[in-house]
Design a protein that fits this description.
single chain, about 475 residues, alpha/beta, 9-stranded mixed sheet, about 20% strand, globular
């Protein structure tokens, strides 16, 4: 329910940011100019340990650097990440995908434990002039003036008025439905996550994020450092959405079906971690939105949608959203000029979806490929490894899309179809059977060819859908 109000005489802030996590902190600093009154409302009183975004691509890391966060975050134990490494099987050579191969791009990403990340970002944000945090402030309703424009919020402690309201409260955003913005959500799977003390040194490439294949779902393991200079790692295991038995059931599942597909030292570290404490479980959802702004309001980061965490695109989207909106509002003063603000919000919506759609397409495609549950995706999996191992240029093109350095849908489609073409030779060689190392039968090869065609058509259709939507949004 909205509260109708025309009271604009006494503003509590120039802008209210709902959500004091990583996105809200980045948004507050991106808007801060020493004059604006920025009020950040956080529903929680403290910060409970939970698994959330920790791994950042160079594009998102550069935003943190631009906004001044990185020195504080390094002090809290964050570490540089040099790229991704994909491991098909324990005794198969690792396929490296270094960030440094992308031309004209920052050569490193960044990672740290989520709780430490939030702590460090809040610490830096609260040092900036004009930024005020209020904790234990849950937004219950949206305020609108007599023209229907968003002009504030109501919490349990009262009403708060502002010229601009920004929802930065994550994928399960309460602001999104309060604003009347729709979503399309799908539960994909679950992530079972735990900390592996000193686990980074056990990785084949200790400064890389790793994707290990072979189990039901991919296993993502990456360094997260630590405040004492340790080189801990995070293990994040993709399991079926039919998971039963809660954390204890997840422990038995990982020991039985996932640990055998890891190198022996890592498997041992995983089992020791599971014996020491129960893992955390988080739902992996694909949440798509088609609208991110209204007069006087916008949603930012995961509040505007999210994809499977396998490709670590989430926080990069959050931070680029914040920087993009901050730059568009740079000359908007205290946001009292409604025409200027709304023009910036409309451009923000165009630019963010142009960036986000490729992330969504790529994440969905890679998750399908790394799971390899169908003949077509198994064929593409073999093709993508051949493609990556063929040249530095091939790896750089894929990593540019993955990291956000390139956001063109046409480039994504071209790369996807190139990999499909490379997959054809793998099918002809019989390398795409259900069991790794066994030659595929004639029927299995036929099914792989059929699957390649179906996946190519499907991705082309999705790209055309998003390009059409982008055109309509830009011409509105």
């Amino acid at each position: 329910m909205d509260i109708q109000t025309s009271n604009q005489e006494s503003l509590d802030a120039d802008v209210i940011i709902v959500g004091g996590g990583v996105t809200g902190c980045a948004m507050a600093v991106a808007l801060a100019n020493g004059k604006r009154r920025i009020l950040v409302l956080e529903a929680r009183l403290g910060h409970k340990p939970r698994f959330a975004g920790e791994l950042l691509h160079p594009t998102g890391t550069q935003v943190l650097d631009d906004l001044g966060f990185l020195p504080t975050l390094r002090h809290h134990g964050g570490v540089d990440v040099d790229g991704f490494a994909v491991v098909k099987a324990p005794k198969v050579p690792v396929t490296r995908l270094p960030y440094g191969e992308i031309e004209n791009n920052r050569p490193t990403g960044f990672a740290m434990e989520h709780r430490d990340l939030v702590t460090g970002m809040r610490e830096w944000a609260q040092k900036q002039p004009g930024i005020t945090f209020r904790f234990n402030e849950k937004v219950e309703e949206i305020l609108r003036n007599d023209r229907g424009r968003v002009c504030g919020v109501r919490t349990a402690s009262g009403t708060l008025h502002a010229n601009l309201v920004l929802g930065c409260d994550g994928r399960h955003s309460k602001i999104r439905p309060l604003l009347g913005l729709s979503e399309n959500a799908r539960l994909l799977s679950f992530s079972v996550a735990m900390r592996l003390p000193d686990g980074a040194k056990l990785l084949p490439c200790p400064t890389f994020g790793h994707i290990f294949l072979g189990a039901w779902g991919p296993m993502l393991i990456y360094p997260i450092g630590g405040p004492d200079g340790s080189r801990d790692a995070r293990g994040c295991f993709d399991v079926t959405r039919e998971l039963s038995g809660g954390p204890k059931g997840a422990v038995e599942l990982l020991k039985r079906e996932y640990a055998p597909h890891l190198p022996e030292p890592l498997a041992k570290a995983l089992i020791e971690s599971l014996d020491r404490e129960l893992p955390q479980i988080a739902a992996n959802e694909a949440i798509r939105t088609d609208q991110a702004v209204l007069p006087g309001a916008a949603i930012v980061g995961d509040a505007g949608g999210c994809a499977h965490p396998l490709t670590a695109a989430g926080m990069t989207v959050c931070f680029t959203d914040a920087q993009r909106l901050g730059r568009l509002l740079r000359h908007a003063g205290d946001f009292s000029d409604m025409r200027l603000v709304d023009t910036a919000l409309r451009q923000y919506e165009i630019d963010r979806y142009r960036f986000v759609r490729v992330r969504e397409l790529l994440t969905d495609a890679l998750y399908e490929v790394f799971r390899g549950a169908e003949p077509g995706t198994r064929a593409i999996r073999e093709g993508i490894f051949r493609y990556w191992e063929s040249s530095k240029v091939a790896r750089a093109r894929s990593m540019a899309l993955l990291s956000g350095a390139d956001s063109r849908p046409a480039v994504f489609l071209k790369e996807y179809l190139t990999v499909v073409g490379t997959s054809t030779s793998a099918v002809l060689a019989g390398e795409t059977g259900p069991v790794r190392g066994e030659t595929a039968t004639i029927k299995q090869r036929f099914d792989s060819f059929l699957g390649l065609g179906q996946k190519s058509f499907e991705k082309a259709r999705l790209v055309l859908r998003d390009v059409r939507q982008e055109f309509l949004r830009a011409s509105a």
